[in-house]
Amino acid sequence: MQVTPLVWIITIAVTILFFVYEFFAHVRKPHEPSIGESARWSAFYIGLALVFGAGIGMVSGWTYGGEYFAGYLTEKALSVDNLFVFLIVMTGFAVPKKYQQKVLMVGIIIALILRGGFIAIGATLIENFSWVFYIFGALLLVLAYRQAFGGHEANPADGKFMTLVRRILPVTPEYHRDKLTVKLDGKRFVTPMMLTIIAIGFVDLIFAVDSIPAIYGLTSEAYIVFTANAFALMGLRQLFFLIGGLLERLVYLAQGLAVILAFIGVKLVFHALHVNELPFINGGQPLLWVPEIPIWLSLLFIGATILVATVASLLKTRGGGEAKARAGEVTDSTAGTPR
To answer: In 7, 20, 198, 323, which residue has its Cα 20 to 30 A from 14's Cα atom?
Structure first.
């Protein structure tokens, strides 16, 4: 896939413009979005992502189009999991609802910047070291196990990292509208809003470790990796307010993501064996008999897994019991997150 520097510049510039527009049109003035507003913008961004993928298919071929759609689906599912952790963080810091948009917006921008850095590093490693596929594959298998069986971790709002931040930075006990810092008695303090954004940035860093190896297991094209991530993050703020309580009903989301990560991990290991150059494996020769999983199968498997996990979750929580239990975890400031 040939992507010129001009196309990269235009893509990054348009992405930045979208987020600038989002901030000035929707986030700058604190308010809680309505369901209608959230639904319209969520539909717009999802539609835009689908049109872009169709454009890739028509211009560069449907192999690349399929890689984009598989990557977009995977990143979107991981982003929904990310939203659940955002919800826990904002609950832990008791962020007023009318200020949650700003926190989400900043968190999403931090996520895109961090993922951009990881994408560049991943592209360089893949171009120069074929054995990195073994590392990515093994990492995804470990992450899949943790996702499925890792139990509950501490709320990031009360974790060791945020405890250290509180020791370093003077913090006010209350919010001062949506300000990040405030001057009191001649001394500068950070507000809980700043702490929330720092916590979400830390969470974004952890999630980038999941998402970038996962999508590089579906495509080696850095442009597809970047655009799939960008479109997965666009509209995430609106999606948060749209699905709201539905997050608490997605009780099998972690297991579904574990299956997807494990599948991509196996796919990466198969690919690593197929292009093997390590001297202690088959004398440094590729194992050409190892099957390569085609992109159409990856797309079908990922889509089916997300569908099954979602339907099973909704059926499980139809009576509301499991959802209430999960909601109880979120409202407790010491709640864990199933990762």
So the answer is: 198
User: Given the structure tokens 């449907």, which residue do they identify?
Assistant: 62
Distance set, CA 17 to CA 106, 110, 181, 238 (Å): 15, 15, 27, 17
Q: Indicate the SS3 state at residue 244.
A: coil
End-to-end CA distance of the chain: 35
Q: Per residue in 190-214, pLDDT tens? A: 888 888 888 888 777 777 777 788 8
Helix (H, G, I), strand (E, B), or coil: what is residue 242? helix
Residue 289 in tokens: 């008999």
Interval 272-281: pLDDT, tens: 888 777 888 8
d(CA 3, CA 14): 16
- CB–CB of 172/183 below 8 Å? no
pTM of the model: 0.79
Average pLDDT over the chain reads 81
In the DSSP assignment, the letter for residue 332 is S
CB atoms within 10 A of CB 59: 10
